[in-house]
Write the C-alpha cells for this entry.
Amino acid sequence: MYDLFSRKLTVAAIAAAALISTAGCKSGNNRQESVMLSGAGSTFVYPVMTRWIQDYSQQHSNVRVNYQSIGSGGGIQQVKMGTVDFGASDAALDDGQLKEMKPVIQIPESAGPVCITYNLPGLKEPLKLSPQALAAIFLGTIKSWQDPAITKDNPGAQMPKLPVIVAHRADGSGTTNIFTTYLSAVSSEWQSKVGKGNSVSWPVGIGGKGSEGVTGNIRNSPGAIGYVELTYAEQNHLPVAKIRNQAGEYIAPTAQAATAAINAFSSQLAQDPRSPIVNPPATAKDAYPIAGMTFLIIPRDGSDKVKRSALKSFVQYIITDGQTTAGSLNYAPLPDGVKQYDQQQLQEMTANGLPLQ
C-alpha cells in the first residue's frame, strides 16, 4: 500500500504519461484524437478513482483524466459552473438542487463505510462505540475518554486519561453528509441541534480540509477522533472503531459490512438509488451502520462529441470492470440492480442533443 502523497504523485505521473503517449498515438493510418477529461469532488472516492484512472489509461492511452480531490461540495459547484466534465459526490443531489442546475445524470459508482478513526495511545483493543456515545462525543457532551458511556461500551479496556478532541471536515463534504445523516437517524438531539448535510455547524472540534486534513489532525493529536473513508485510516496506520448496529452487534467498517448495509436497503434502492443506507434494521446483523454511496454527477448534454464519448467510455469502465478494483480497495461493489440503473442513466448522455454511440 502506498501513502496519500504517493497517490497524488501517481495521478500526476499517469497524467504526464498520458500526455506523452498521445503525441504519437495512431490507429492504422488514422491519428487517434487525444482527449482530456476533468473531474472534481469527493475525497471519499479519491483512492479508488486514482486506480480507475490508472487502469483505464493503460487501455486508452489517448485519454487523460485529471481528478481533483476537493470535496463533494466543491465538485458539485464545479459541475454547476461548467468548469469540469464530471463531479463526484458522496451525497446525491436532491430535487431542490437539481432545479438549480442544468440537466445532469447521477450515477452511483461505489459504496463504502465511513469509518470512525482515533488516536488513543495505549488502547490495545479496537474502540467500541454505541450510537448514543458517538453522538454525544460529536455533540461535545462527552469530554473525556474515561466517560462512563465509553467505558460501558469497552469493559475491561484501559481508556487513556485524555480529553476528547473531535476532528471534522471544514469543507463541504459528502462524507460529512453520510455521517451526519447517520447521527440524525440515531440521535434526536443531534437532529434538532445540528441536522444533516454536506456542511453543518459543528458544536465542537477542529476542522480539516478534505479527508486528508481530518486524517492529519487525528494522527497529530492524541485523544482525537474523527470520520474518514477507510483507506485514509489504513494508509495512515490509524485504528478504526467498531460501531454498534441496530442488531446490537459491534461491527467494524469493511467492504463486506457495507455490502450488508446495501442489501438491507435493496428495495429502497430499487425505487431510488439516492436512498441513504445508514442505520440498517436489526435484521441486518452483519451490516456496518455508517455507509453510503458515491455518485458521479455528469451534465446530460455537451458540445464536444469526442470528449463526451470518452467520458461515457470511462464511466462504463467504472461501473463494470472497475467494480473489481473497488472491492480490492475497501469499497463495496455495486449490486446488480444499481448497475442496471447506471446503464440506463448512461444512455441519456448526449452531445449537441444527439445520442452517443
